[in-house]
Each structure stands twice: as C-alpha cells, then as structure tokens.
Amino acid sequence: MQEMCQLWIVKCDSNAMDNVATERMAEESHRQDSANLLIFIMLLTLTILTIWLFKHRRFRFLHETGLAMIYGLLVGVILRFGVHVPQSMSDVIPSCAVNASPATLLVNVSGRFYEYTLKGEVSRGKGHQVQDDEMLRKVTFDPEVFFNILLPPIIFHAGYSLKRRHFFRNIGSILAYAFMGTVISCFVIGLIMYGFVSFMKVVGQLGGDFYFTDCLFFGAIVSATDPVTVLAIFNELKVDVDLYALLFGESVLNDAVAIVLSSSIVAYQPAGDNSHSFEAMALLKSFGIFLGVFSGSFALGVATGVMTFTKLRDFPLLETALFFLMSWSTFLLAEACGFTGVVAVLFCGITQAHYTFNNLSPDSQDRTKQLFELLNFLAENFIFSYMGLTLFSFQSHVFNPMFIIGAFMAVFLGRAANIYPLSFLLNLGRKNKIRSNFQHVMMFAGLRGAMTFALSIRDTATYARQMMFSTTLLIVFFTVWICGGGTTPMLSFMSIPSAVLDGSQRRNTKHESAWPFRIWYNFDHNYLKPLLTHSGPPLTATMPACCGPLARCLTSPQAYENEGQLHDEDSDFILNDASVSSMYADVTVSTDASGSHTINRKHSFNYSAGGGPSDEGLDHELALAEHEVAIRGTRLVLPMDDPVEPPTTVTLPPPPSPPRSDPRRHRL
Amino acid sequence: MQEMCQLWIVKCDSNAMDNVATERMAEESHRQDSANLLIFIMLLTLTILTIWLFKHRRFRFLHETGLAMIYGLLVGVILRFGVHVPQSMSDVIPSCAVNASPATLLVNVSGRFYEYTLKGEVSRGKGHQVQDDEMLRKVTFDPEVFFNILLPPIIFHAGYSLKRRHFFRNIGSILAYAFMGTVISCFVIGLIMYGFVSFMKVVGQLGGDFYFTDCLFFGAIVSATDPVTVLAIFNELKVDVDLYALLFGESVLNDAVAIVLSSSIVAYQPAGDNSHSFEAMALLKSFGIFLGVFSGSFALGVATGVMTFTKLRDFPLLETALFFLMSWSTFLLAEACGFTGVVAVLFCGITQAHYTFNNLSPDSQDRTKQLFELLNFLAENFIFSYMGLTLFSFQSHVFNPMFIIGAFMAVFLGRAANIYPLSFLLNLGRKNKIRSNFQHVMMFAGLRGAMTFALSIRDTATYARQMMFSTTLLIVFFTVWICGGGTTPMLSFMSIPSAVLDGSQRRNTKHESAWPFRIWYNFDHNYLKPLLTHSGPPLTATMPACCGPLARCLTSPQAYENEGQLHDEDSDFILNDASVSSMYADVTVSTDASGSHTINRKHSFNYSAGGGPSDEGLDHELALAEHEVAIRGTRLVLPMDDPVEPPTTVTLPPPPSPPRSDPRRHRL
C-alpha cells in the first residue's frame, strides 16, 4: 500500500514557489472566473432584451432559445478569434506525471500541503496545445454543472407545469411514445449509425474507434426531444389540447427515458475482454439497471412529491422555502442513492403539482409557480446560449461530414419509426384517433434541446464521444432554428385547429378515455386526493360506509370546508379562462343516482324508526342532507356505457344526517 | 523556465491506476457530495418546521437563526462522534511533494492527462491525521462559497429592504456609526487584543505568531454587526422607527465597512522585510486601498442600480429575470474589476429599491420582493446552521481561554467606544436626540453574524487566523443566543416605545431633519426620481422654465399619468398600513406659491396678447391650468424655518396652458 510511485514533473515555474505569487494567481483566476460568468450574464441580459423586443413586436419566427443560441455563437466567435490571452497565463499549468489519478491530490510545496481536486481528463494528444487556448478552456464549464444545477429546474418545471388533466387522459399514448418510441428511435438510430460507421471504416473516414455501443448511446441521447419550444409556441397559439398533451407529455417523459437508457447503455459491459461484442447476460444486466434506476427514481420522486405539509399555510415564505427544499432534496437523495436525480425531480414535479400544490396557500401557489418559472427561464436560456458558445469554444470538435449526414438521416428516420407505427397501433385502440396531420406535426416538432446537449457534453473523452458531441450540437441547432421556427407555419399548413370546445367534443372526451384512465381517475379522485390534499370530496363521502371511522380520521378538516368548491386547482395550470370550466365539466360527474338512493332511503327508514325529530332539528337535518347529497353527487362514478342522466338532487326524500356524535359535521 | 523540479509521492494506491476504479471513485465522491448537501437541506427543512412551530405558538425567545445554529451544532456532534468512515476512503489521497502550488495541475497517468485544480492549503502539521477525518473535511465548504454565493443575496436583501425614508432622515448618524464607529471599534478591539496577546506571549500561552495587523484584522471582522435578528424582532414589535433605522442602517453599512477595512488591513504590508512593523507609507497605501475599493464598489453598485428598463412592464417574467441578472452582474462586475462584490451589491440593492423598484410592474415588484426574500431566508439559515456545524467539523480549532476572554471584553468595550461617544457627539447636532435607553439598546443589539463568520473563515491558514476563527465562532454564538434572545426583554426593560404617531411627532420630523438631508431630498425628489423612474412629479414641473424642452425630453410619459398618485412606493417597504400615509405626510410639500405665480402670470399675459381663446378652449385651459398648479403644488420645497402655510391652489388666477404643440400635454 505504502509503495513509492514514480513521478515526473514536465514543466514547473520556479517563481511560483513564492507564496504571494500564488495568492495573486488565485486572485487573478478568481477575477477571470467572475469575468467569464459576467459574459454569460450579459448574454442572458441581451437575450432577455431581444426577447422583449420580439414579443413587443409580435415577431414569432424565432423562439427565445434560438435567439440565445445565436448570441452564444457570436460570443463564441469573438472569444475564439477576437481575444488573445497573454502567454503568461500558461504559467499556471505545470504538469507532472503520476501513475494514478485519484480524486484528491495532496501536494507538498516546501512544507505546506495544498489540496488539489480532480477536474477531469484533458483530451489525449492535445496536451501540447493546452496553453494556447486557456481562455477558451476557462469559459468551458464542468459538464456536471448541467446535470446538477441547470437541468433540474428545467425538468422540474416541465413536470410541474404538465397539463395534467389532458396528460392523464392520454396517458396510454404518451407512455407508448415515451417508452416504446424512445427505445425504437434509439435502436433505429443506433443501427443506421452503425451501418454508416462501418461504411466509414471501410472507406477510411474514421479517425478512431467507434463501437456499436457508441452508436446506441448516440441513438439514446438524440432521442430525447425538448419540450421548451413546443410548449411556448403551442401555448401561445392555443393549439388542440390533445395534440399538445401528446407532444408535451412525450417530450417530458422521453427525457427521463433517454437519460436512464443512455446510462444503461454505458453500463453494458460484456464480461471478460474489452471486445464490445454482444452478450445476452450483459444486455439483461443493462435492462435490469434501466428498470431499477427508472423505477427507483420514479418511486423516490413520487414519494417526496406526496409528502404533505398542511399547517404551514399562514407563513407563505416558510411554505415556499420548504417546497423548494423538498424538490431539491429529492434530487440529492436520488443522486446519493445512485438513482438519477433528474428523473426523480421530474416525477416529484408531476406529483407535487397534482397533490401538494393543492395544499399550498394561494400566496405560495403563486410564489412557487413564479419561482420555478424564473429558474427554468434562466437555466434554459443559459444552456442554449452556452450551446451556441461551445460551437467555437469547445476544443476537441470532430466534424465528420459523412457522420453528420448519416446522423441527420438517422434522426429523421428514427423519429419517423417512433411516431408513425406507434400512432397506427395506438389508433387501433383509441376512440379519439390521432389524425395524420397530428402525426406529421409530432414528427416535425421533435426538437432536440437541453437534455440532448447535456448528455452529449457529459463525456467527451474519446474520439467517438467528441464526434457525437459535435454532431449533436449541429442537430440541436438545426432542429431549434429550422423546426422550431417552422412550427407556426407547419401548424397552419397542416390546418391544426385551435382548442375549440363545442358540446359534441365535450361529450366525446369522456367516452374516449381509456378504461385504465377511468379506473385510475376514480381511485385518484376518490381516495388519493382526499388523503393527500385538502381538496376533493372528504373520504367520508367516498369510502364505503364500513370504513367510516378510518375515513373520518384520514380526512383533513379543511376538506369539509372546501367541499363546496370541488373544482380542484389542477386545471388552472395550463388551461386558461373560459376553457377551464367547460373542459372540466366533461370529466366531472354524472350522479350515480339510483345507487345512492337505495342506501339513503334505507338509512332514512332506520332513522325514522328511531323517533321523530323536532321541527328545528328537521330543518337542520334537511340542510345537512341536501349537502350530503351534493357531496355524494360529486363522487365520481363514470358510467361506462350508460347515457348521461341529469342529476336528480333536489327532488329526493331527505337522506339521513350523519351520526350526530361526529363534531366535524356540525361545522358544515 | 522548463527546469525540472523534484517530486515525491508519499502514498499511492497501486490499484487506482485502473480507469474503471477511478471512475467509480469519482462516482462515489459525487454520491458523497450529494449526501453531504442533503444533510444541509435536511437541516434547513428541520429549521423551517421548527420556526413554524415557534411562530405558530408565538414563542419569541429564540430567533430562527439561533435555532439553525443549534441544529447545526447537533449535526456537527453527530458527524464528529457518531459517524465513522471506513478507512478505504483515505485511498483517494495520495500526496506528492512539489515545490510549487500552481492553480492548475496536469497529472500524467500512464499516458492520460488529468487536470487538477487547487482547492486550498491543508493546515500545516495536520497532514498525518487527514485520513482520519475525511468525512468532516467533506462537509467543509470552500470558504469562497460564502462570499460568492451565500453572502450576496443576504446583503442585497438587506439593502433592498432598507427602510429608506427613515434611513435617509437619519443618514448622518447612520454614516457616523457605520464609518467612524466601525473604525473606532476596530482599533479599540485591535489595541486591547494586542495588549492581551503581548501578555499571553510573556506568560507563554501563545502557540504561534500573532502580529499587530492580526489584531487589527480581528478588530475589523468582529466589528461587523448583523442586521438579521434585530430586523426580525424590531419588525415584529414595531419598535420606534428612528431606533430601528439607526440600528438597521448601521448594521447594514458596517458590513460593507468591515469587509473593505479587513481587506485593507491584509493589504498593509511594510516594504522591505517581513517585520510587521509600523510604517506610514504602508498605512497610507492601505487607507488609499480602503477609499479606492469602497468608492469603486459604491459607484459600481449605484451605477447598475439606477440603470432603468422601462418598457418591459408587460412581461413580468422577463422583467424579474432582468432585475435578478442585473443585481448578479453588479456583483460579478465588481469582483472582475477587483472591487468588493458584496459592497457593490449592497449599494445596488439600496439604489434599486429607491429608483428601479418604482419602474417595475406591480407583478414584478411582488416577484422580486418574494424572490429576494426567499433567497435571503435560505442563505441566511444555511450560513447559521453551517456555523453550528463548524464548531465540531472544523479541524484546526484553536481555543485559547485567555484569548477568548480577552476577545469578549474587547468586543464589549469596542462596541461601547463606538456607541456612547458617537451618540454624545451626534446629540450635539441632532434635534431629535438619541436617548440613553436607545443607546443601551444599540449597545446590546450589536450581534455578530454572517459577515463576521464569512470573513473569519475565509482564511484559516495560520495559527493566528485559526484562533480568531474559533473565537469568532464563540462570539457569534454568544451574541445571537444571549443578546438576540434577550432583545425583547431588553426593549421592554428599557421601555422603548412602539412607533406611535401623534401629531406633534409628525410635525417634529421635518424640522429635525438635518439640512444635508433636506437638500439631498429636494434634489432627489425633484430631479433624480423623475429622471430615473416613472414616479415623482414630471421634470417639466420641477425644473426651471428655461430647461423646459430638456425636461420634457427626459420625463417619461408615464410620469404624467402617474402624477395623481404622487406617493411613491418607497414607504410600503417596511412601514405598514396606517402609518404609511401619516409618515409620508410629514415629508411632503408646502407649495412654493409665490415663485410659481410670477412666472405663470407672465406667461399668461403673453398668451392673452396672442389672441383671446374660445370658450371651449378656455374651459380646457382652465382644467389644464388647475392641473398644472396641482403639479407645481407637489414640487417639493421644504422651507427651512418658515411656518408652514396652507397651499393656495384654488384661488389663483388661471396660469397658462403649456405650449399647444406638445402632444404629450394633451394626454393629461
């Protein structure tokens, strides 16, 4: 253990021994860091001002992310060709050769110990030219910054602002696109690229190793579509809600799939030699990793998402802070457990929006929405402007024309192999078909964005990864500028209707819901919501009579107070103004009148047998009873095939009041 | 340049050569980092929940920061004594000896280059026991995190929420306490400590060097009082506004003074030898640095603070983002220029609250307030719980009982030497005397907090600095728990009145304002506010007639629209409800009637000579004229000694309308 290893120092500046000089260098480095960060802040400021100009003039051709990229590009060009760093900067990099690369290095400088931390590997063979582009290397962030700081707010916000009602209505199709579609796309792209790469090897166009796993990895990272631009455009144009839900839901979820898929592919390692050959066991293991990591992250995210804090309502600041910390701790917890923080955060966001959000005070609801909106906005524009910058500042680009052409073809075909066959299959089961113009839009609007970039920049050590990174960058540019910019024309060309809500459409939506959705919705609305939030009907109303005491114990007192306004706040999230209530109407309620009657009547008889109530008591009873019926009325029993009857609440004979011993009842 | 230096490697794990192992170690390290951060998040969550409990039960004895410290302490104890890290972790720290400590190190591991960055110096002589407390070292943050991430939002928020009206009314006294007081306190503490240290050297209690500059440095860092606890308690109790303004203003500004002062003391380096002797030139140079850095940071902060963006009002998200970015870029810009970012951010906050805030849309005003409130809350509680943690996790504590006793005495005497003599001198000039019970409260409420901690943890390399850090920690604990907890009893014991606003008090406030304040206020209200914001009277009304065109050009159109509601939104910041308007009343307006008349009349004659207006025109004119008078009425001319006259607007003969050619006028 305590053996001696040999070390060489290649270059070492003798005057660096001086302590003051070291301090000054550290200060200089700190200044430089500040200046670099300032460049990005200025970029963002510029972007914001231009976005404002665009919005002000209603100029919709270019989305803000596209704009951020352009500014990033310009700054990249300036840094690359306009700024020359004095050679003295290079003094700070002596290099010494060790045979180990530990995470922490203790260096003994004339009796003082300095601690160094591993920053990463510098690309092989580039060692000699490192000095020349110190400045460019300085503006290059640690790729983990993207995964640990910038991506989480974006992904969380996507989950938090998911159009939940429509999302759940189309859950089956969305899951199909997100899971099967991403896997299909990954393998299609991987196979096509493998063909291309093999051809390039024959032709002699390949400058390094490129294995099949690399191809699959490339397939995984470029299969993640970006919700950002689509969200913005569709929201502005008020496009058909189902199309919106399909596209947004897919692009949110496939980010999660792609990130877990890519890490499973990296984990695919055939035992024995380093041959990169196919092996069933290793594949199974990768598949196991995929399932394990995905379900682990999912479970963690949901678990933290449903954790409710109900009594903080009086202190919005504390509430907001707690909400924020819980989202963040989800991320950290998942990372600490070896799961994927970003995926956990996504599901945490979805769950929090569905349950916890309803428990927040109105003030905190605004605050959290605005906070996450702001964080998302900043992170997103930062990533996109950084993307523009890296095209010129990244120093190990490998632009291979053949590979690029192949990649563009593969991405196109992969998307097609995802959308069209799956839509065909889904349409077999869907009552509300996914029309062909919808399919074309989904095909067209599959932009690649932040996630693809973050995944590709995470590891740029090998030749294969460098080529992937450069190609990915071009794919992102192309899709954001061309496809993003073309979405509005595309929509009108495909004559996609805006969200019009006539009666017939409303009637349809219920029947077209898939039965798993209906079961889930019933369960969620009747049991989970009342249990986890203050909204929804009280459990006492929805649980079978035998579970009465348990139900009373689990229902929060506020649920009774809130029961008048049973429209929970889900819908206000993305739907706006008039459409909310009408949209909502189609999923709420048709009274299961006959069922309730029977029970009510029976109870009623029992009660009458017990003795006649006084007049005043009867009045009170009647009021309570009507209320009770109203509650039962909102119990959600979606009839499968029956025609909808008008609810018959008023003409009923008085059902009994609940047991008098229950003090909560009297608060009604 | 290319010379060879000798290197030794002390310990090196041979199996670390394996690439996979390195990767796994990096992953392990990442997990560990996540877990560590999670500890802090959990701490914060716990703190929030307990704060809520305290608030809920109206339990005011312990402030939330004190609470955060207690939790931090507990976790520190657990980490120190409860958790034992397996020895295998220490494998990651081989150490090799070089004679240079560059900021970046390139390590060649069997052909691959790894980049290492300098993390800092590990305390001398502790090298052998580093392996044992890897875990504790892991939870220790880079001190620069405090300066670059945690302190800025706290200081910005302090500036942003400064009670500006009362702040400006007491500006003279506040500046005296903050500047002269801090310098006095610094030197008094420094001298006392030097006496103690000299005595300890004689007795043989000192284990290392401790120079006079170290004593002064200690004096500077413990002179920074913390606004947090005081702000919270005083706000809750609605203490006398002047006392509040004095204490809060002082503690906000003396943070800035202390930080610049301490860096100037560090920069004090007598030429020639390392003798730490007194030298006039070096002192002058330090003083120059103090002035330069302070005024530079001040100028930068103010400059970015007044930058106005006026047309973004329709997009609150963009506005908020821009506002946030501008505050941050102030910090970065100052750091990049070699000034002090924290100081710049403080003045940026003050200026933005005074000017830019008025230009924001109401939505953004809420958003920014809430955002900064949240950031401040999180950063503050983080720092305080970290403080508690470091008492056990920091590994180079030097607790010297004599030094600690001396420090407590010195801090007490230093504070006394600041408050009492200055108050006496200030009372000579103040009409509204600072009463002796106010002085006692100011003496008592000088808590040490985040800034003191951040300054003392910044450099813990030498024996002297380590002893300072340990002692500072105890001072912070003592003042926050004892003085912070005792503030409420102290206030009632000293029978400090709540902010009662009877007529006499209102009348006094104007006369008691110092003349520099009155001049500044006039200038600010009449020229700066109209120029930089949409609020306040239009420049056309306040500037001399000869500057008419210029004034019209500089006034924003919205100023005319807003002129009805001339109460700008300053006051709502800390003052609340009823007190706002009455407070405001004392500073507004007595019409400079005679002056306006002369000019008006002259114009009027000119106009009449041009030709009689039609009836309708005359009506219009009259309406305009009355408006014009109303505007002039709000022009702020505080008479120095005259008794206040009632404004005489209605009985005036009609002054002329402004030139008809000006299209803006017609919008009135």
UniProtKB/TrEMBL annotation, chains A, B:
It is a multi-pass membrane protein. It holds the Pfam family Na_H_Exchanger. It is found in: Cell membrane; Recycling endosome membrane. One of its GO terms (cellular component) is recycling endosome membrane. Residues 47-491 form the Cation/H+ exchanger transmembrane domain. The chain crosses the membrane at residues 35-54, 66-83, 145-162, 174-196, 216-234, 287-309, 321-350, 371-392, 398-417, 463-484. Keywords: Antiport, Cell membrane, Endosome, Ion transport, Membrane, Sodium, Sodium transport, Transmembrane, Transmembrane helix, Transport. GO terms for biological process: regulation of intracellular pH; sodium ion import across plasma membrane. Residues 639-668 are annotated as: Disordered. Signal peptide: none annotated. InterPro entries: Cation/H_exchanger_CPA1, Cation/H_exchanger_TM, NaH_exchanger, NHE-6/7/9. One of its GO terms (molecular function) is potassium:proton antiporter activity. PANTHER family: SODIUM/HYDROGEN EXCHANGER, SODIUM_HYDROGEN EXCHANGER. Belongs to the monovalent cation:proton antiporter 1 (CPA1) transporter (TC 2.A.36) family. This is Sodium/hydrogen exchanger.
